[in-house]
Design brief:
By secondary structure, this protein is of the alpha+beta class. It is built from two helices and three strands; from the N terminus they run βααββ. It has one domain. Strands 1-3-2 form a three-stranded antiparallel sheet.
Length: 67
């Protein structure tokens, strides 16, 4: 079980960005930056980065909790 975080009860929403293919993984940071610029009213309060891989694919996931 994950330890409780201070911000755990202080977010209004969550947005998940995920990419499996090489090109989309390379563009993931730009997609997140564009989303942040397009939603200036959503202030990130916590972020998780998850990396997973199988024999053929590598998945990068960024989870942003925002207020």
């Amino acid at each position: 079980m994950m330890p409780a975080r201070k911000e755990a009860n202080t977010f209004d929403g969550v947005t998940v960005f995920s990419a499996t293919m090489r090109r989309s993984r390379e563009e993931l940071g730009d997609r997140i930056t564009q989303w942040l610029k397009a939603h200036p009213d959503r202030v990130p309060v916590d972020t998780f980065v998850v990396l997973s891989s199988g024999r053929r694919f590598h998945c990068h996931t960024v989870v942003i909790f925002w207020r």
